[in-house]
Design a protein that fits this description.
The complex is a heterodimer of chains A (310) and B (283). Chain A is an all-alpha fold and 310 residues long. Chain A has a domain of 215 residues. Helix content of chain A is 77%, strand content 0%. Chain A contains 11 helices and no strands. By secondary structure, chain B is of the alpha/beta class. In chain B, a hairpin with a 2-residue loop joins strand 1 and strand 2. The longest helix of chain B is centred in the last third of the chain and has 18 residues. Classes of the chains: A mainly alpha (310), B alpha/beta (283). Chains A and B meet through helix 7 of A and helix 1, helix 5, strand 6 and helix 6 of B.
């Protein structure tokens, strides 16, 4: 090894940029290896591509599990704090009004057009098979079991869930949640419990509303526009749709209601990073909610029907 | 135990009981003793065995450059976080060891004024100040109204009771935050960087507010700050922190007499003139 080779590890003084004013003032060494008695230390080896990719993959796999764990923990806190006094009736009513009453318009509009489109498609499809008389039964069955709870939960998630995340996220980043703690008020009990309880009660009620409006939309299109007999439509609907179907829909709606509000609150409650962080939390809240609703829809259906879960 | 008693056991844990301490302890000029407090976040050892005293009924200022652990210390003092080890003795009771209802009761004897005031956006000024009373007392609406208006009037913001926090200036928001903290007859009031980001006139107003709160309500004030000019205006006692350690603690005069290099550099760098330092030394 030549002298020049030995010098190759030492940075060339002449090519280095001069230290900044701040660094000179603070006496911060530019090269940390020179801080130890002027002896050059070996540069730490960067991790290999495989190690980095492996770590990233592991983190990506662990993220949903960690999120599930955090949600389970928050649900446990909601149970704990929801059962013990004080009970703040006014806040419960306010949250129910916010989640339920204020969602009526969007749920109604969605329900009407979903029902109308469903009726339109089914009459057209069934006519080819000569079974258009069954339109009422399929509309009623689909709305009460599947479409009603899923669409209602998606609407509540987009309207109320995202707003909850933003509100709680803003409270977090402006220290309002810390302020609650310093005033000896438990923030989960004060902020999260009423919202989750509102979701539990209001999403099923909204689902009933969605079902009724959806069926009305389908009935209007099928009977007034497409010439289907009203008596046949309603009779088939009554014939096929059972209370069991409505119950399944309402069970799903209750599960979705709790899930939507819990995810929204969890994302907002632990938001960090200022306004940008709140925006990201809101985005995550909507995405997580959509995934959770569709996943739980399958799970609850599988559990209730006792099949499809392997 | 009846339903009423059961309900009260959750809501009625009285901060008054905590105030009913031995008169000998209340005569102690030291209100809070911080002893060997450590706090780490992963590998970062932020508070490295802090020990200092907070004087009763005085304005105690904790100063230090950015990154010295002031805000972390503040979070331990109000128990937003639990120290890894050490004691914070408030009236001889270890705040760190408390949990559950006792911790909540202790918190009700302390108030916190956050840097951004942390007023609830969804409530009016009146509702913000009434909030602790509605949560922790069984006062009637009339009593709450009287108490809230009394606090607002005494801090000079009675006229703003119906406004929302967003309609107020920074200084007025601080006043509302102080009123909210004092409405439960708090013993200790902690201010986190109260003058950061405020113009010089509002800074002076906030300084006056801190002095006013101490004078009118007899509270022990703990101010976390790096605004040196403001510190020298209000402090009865100063604790100087530097990278998680207490460098010096005492009255402004004692601190200036014992100035070491980092303290002096920090004070001079923050715009306080050497003439002022020498002047205060000779006070």
């Amino acid at each position: 090894m030549s002298a020049n080779d030995a010098d190759a590890d030492v940075p060339d003084e002449a090519t280095e940029s001069p230290p900044s004013e701040g660094e000179r003032k603070k006496g911060v060494p530019r090269d940390p290896s020179r801080a130890v008695g002027g002896t050059a230390l070996a540069e730490p080896k960067p991790p290999s591509f495989l190690a980095t990719t492996g770590a990233k993959l592991l983190a990506a796999l662990m993220a949903p599990l960690s999120e599930l764990g955090a949600l389970a923990k928050m649900l446990g806190q909601v149970f704990f704090w929801g059962l013990r006094p004080p009970y703040r009736g006014r806040i419960f009513i306010h949250c129910m009004e916010y989640v339920g009453v204020q969602s009526i318009f969007i749920v109604g509009i969605t329900g009407f057009f979903v029902g109308a489109v469903l009726g339109l498609q089914l009459v057209n499809g069934f006519r080819d098979l000569g079974v258009e008389s069954q339109t009422g039964s399929v509309v009623g069955f689909a709305l009460s079991r599947e479409i009603g709870p899923v669409f209602t939960a998606l609407m509540v998630s987009s309207r109320a869930g995202s707003a909850m995340t933003t509100e709680l996220g803003s409270m977090r980043v402006t220290n309002q949640i810390d302020a609650l703690i310093t005033m000896a008020v438990n923030p989960v009990q004060y902020l999260v419990v009423p919202r989750v309880v509102a979701g539990l009660f209001m999403v099923p009620i909204l689902t009933i509303f969605f079902d009724v409006i959806g069926m009305t939309g389908a009935w209007l299109v099928c009977t007034k526009l497409l010439g289907l007999d009203s008596g046949v439509f309603l009779d088939r609907m009554r014939w096929i749709v059972d209370w069991k179907d409505v119950n399944l829909g309402l069970t799903k709606a209750a599960v979705f209601g709790v899930t939507v509000c819990l995810i929204a609150c969890r994302q907002g409650f632990y938001a960090k990073g200022g306004a940008a962080g709140v925006g990201q939390a809101t985005n995550r809240s909507v995405v997580h909610n959509a995934i959770a609703i569709l996943l739980l829809d399958y799970l609850v259906t599988g559990i209730v029907l006792g099949e499809g879960l392997g | 135990m009846g339903v009423r008693e059961w309900f009260d056991s959750f809501t009625g844990a009285s901060a008054d009981e905590l105030r009913r301490v031995d008169p000998k302890i209340l005569a102690d000029p030291v209100h809070v003793r911080v002893r060997d407090v450590h706090k780490s976040y992963g590998p970062h050892h932020v508070l490295k065995g802090l020990s200092f005293d907070i004087a009763r009924g005085k304005t105690n200022v904790i100063i230090g450059p950015s990154g010295s652990g002031k805000t972390v210390l503040m979070r331990q003092l109000i128990r937003l976080e639990k120290p890894d080890s050490g004691q914070i003795l408030v009236n001889e009771r270890d705040f760190v060891a408390l949990d559950g209802m006792e911790l909540d009761a202790m918190r009700r004897t302390m108030g916190m004024v956050f840097q951004m005031s942390a007023l609830f956006d969804s409530m009016s000024v009146f509702e913000n100040v009434a909030f602790p009373l509605r949560e922790h007392t069984k006062m009637s609406q009339k009593e709450i109204r009287e108490r809230v208006m009394d606090r607002l009037e005494s801090l000079g913001i009675g006229h703003a009771w119906s406004k929302s926090p967003a309609e107020l200036s920074g200084g007025m928001q601080k006043r509302v935050a102080v009123a909210r903290s004092l409405v439960l007859e708090t013993d200790i009031l902690i201010y986190d960087e109260p003058t950061t980001g405020l113009d010089p006139i509002t800074t002076c107003t906030v300084d006056e507010l801190i002095a006013e709160a101490e004078e009118k309500f007899g509270v022990t004030s703990i101010v976390i700050s790096h605004d040196m000019a403001s510190v020298f205006r209000i402090a009865d006692r100063i604790t100087f922190m530097y990278f998680g350690e207490v460098q010096a603690s005492g009255t402004p005069r004692e601190l200036l007499e014992s100035l070491n290099k980092p303290t002096m550099e920090f004070i001079l760098a923050s715009g306080v003139s050497r003439d002022l330092i020498d002047g205060r030394r000779n006070d």
